[in-house]
Amino acid sequence: MNDFVNRTIFSPNPLRTKNDLSRFLVELLNPLAAHTSPGGARIHLGHTGTHYDDAAAQLEGFSRPIWGLASLLAGGGEYEGTKRWLDGFTNGSNPKSDEFWGNMRDKDQRMVECSPIGFAIAVAREQFWDPLSDEAKANFENWLGGMNDKEMPNTNWLWFRVFANLGLSRAGSSRFDAKRMKADLDHLDTFYIGGGWSRDGPEGVIQLDYYSSSFAIQFAQLAYSKLAQDDDPVRCEEYRNRARAFALDFVHYFDAEGRAIPFGRSMTYRFAMSSFWGALAFADVELPAPLTWGVVKGLQLRNIRYWAKQAGAYGPDGTLTIGFCYPNHNMTENYNSPGSPYWCCKSFVSLALPETHPFWAATEEPYPQELRETTKALNYPLHIITNVGGHTYLLSSGQQCSYPVKQSAAKYGKLAYSSAFGYSVPVGNGTLEELGGDNTLALSDDNGETWKVRRATKQARIEDGRWLRSMWYPWKDVEVETWLVSPHPDTPLWHVRVHRIRTSRALTSAEGGFAIYGQGKDGRALEPSTGEEFGTLENGWEGRAASRAGVSGIVDIGSGERTGKALRTDANTNLMVPRAVLPTLMNDHNPNDRNIWLVTAVFALPSVGDEEGARSGWTAAWNNRPRLPKEISAKILWMYTKRL
Q1: Which part of the chain is the DUF2264 domain (predicted)?
Q2: CATH 1.50.10 region(s) of the chain?
Q3: Whole-prediction pTM value?
Q4: Which of 318-322, 354-358, 554-558, 607-611 has the lowest mean pLDDT?
Q5: Which of 114, 221, 272, 308 is such that its CA lies 20 to 30 A from the CA of 160?
Q6: pLDDT, tens only, 25-49
Q7: pLDDT of residue 534
Q8: Which runs of consecutive H residues, i.e. helices, occur in 263-418?
Q9: Architecture of the domain defined by 2-370
């Protein structure tokens, strides 16, 4: 039955060689033929809406697979369906065609789709530009160059115009605007903050998510450094230097099985999260130790192998779904059309390289041994990332979306994010079950009718390289100070949280651990138990759940006044699994208690590979409870005695 449900059409592909990766791409592209318009310019994959028009959404479906197709052709590969895209270039850019994409306006979604199109002309001009008729070329360059005098968002979007101009330059077009491209690049460089990291916008923007890496900025810098080396050598070398520094941080976001930690927006782009590793190879970056081409190859291909096996990521015909590990519109943004997920095709950039390139010639290596069982504080994104005990996750404070984004509190404001357990998003605005409050401290001032969680984090900083400290203010008369403490070597499966709440109103609190798959071996909902078998445990001041995904638990190690329970969250809250259980601690708080201290220990141990369930002997680790660092204990005691 599991094979019947969980097997994908890509499962037999070992995805270890360039030919394997090419075959995977072809099998992703083939199903699009049935959804392509007669003139080739539009791909229609569904009827869900976006904030932009349907013509732009269909252009998105057409353009994003080009990231992969262009790389395949640039690397000497062939694809029999290439003519569909050539016809699309002709008809989509022709104002007289029924399939015309429409001229660009200010801040138009069409600008985004110019990026893969410009990249395609830059790397595979012979296949994508030269075969066009003179009339088609004139229409095409007029359409693509139409963005040069339009207003763009002050974000990574500026890279899309850079790539449009790169394509026009490679085509020898008079619509190429060198002055515009240099101005865009100069402005994009002001986003850089150091250590390889760039913000997704000007000063004041504090998003450092996958847009700062694989989705946009780092990928774009690396591709540019390869394509513009002769014209802009100084900037290109700077981009390679940034990538070297960034790689030593970014490697920590991946686990030994190939999964990346879900964090931030646009998670439906899936294995675009690993495209940075292919872009390193595309740009011929000299790798910093302990990275080798075998390690980089492993990071990239393990991630793609993981996604090739996620049945819920694909529809019955092999097209990508909107969601993460299964179709899920609760976690999407209002710019996610049915064609949006094909941004993942950036991860095929390594197909542009010959088989003699060190990336392909190297023997794939596992995750570096010297980076296992480590914890690292990343000062720029304000993350502490750990993989001790076999669980890769990050502690987070200080990031938030600088503009309205659906579920932004869940995407940026949670206390922890895991490569194995993902994160959850609300499906409603009422019950705790609807909230999906994993790794949050949720507060209610109306007896649980509605809940507030951390979204805007203030005064966030890393202290002593071991914990994060920050403030948030859910109401004008309520403030919460939080410490997030990374695992201690003696208790590697635990991390500790401390919250100090100052309130003038009565509150109910609910603090969640990691949400975990909520079904047993028999496929039925978990039932209470007290042993190491799959089941859930509800026991006073702790909550715990064990399933085929591993074990998750939460314990009050402070006053012991909170009640623990394993909460069944509403279906489709979690990104990884549609049915989840969430260990949770709850309590009511009196407004006369000016300083409310919550001290929490969070336990998590994911299963490994194809082995279902937690590793044997995990109860010994569960019973070995962590302690607060003495520095934080002293601070709590001082604050308590001073009654601050």
Answers
A1: 17-367, 374-634
A2: 2-370
A3: 0.95
A4: 607-611
A5: 308
A6: 999 999 999 999 999 999 999 999 9
A7: 40
A8: 275-282, 293-308, 358-361, 408-412
A9: Alpha/alpha barrel (1.50)
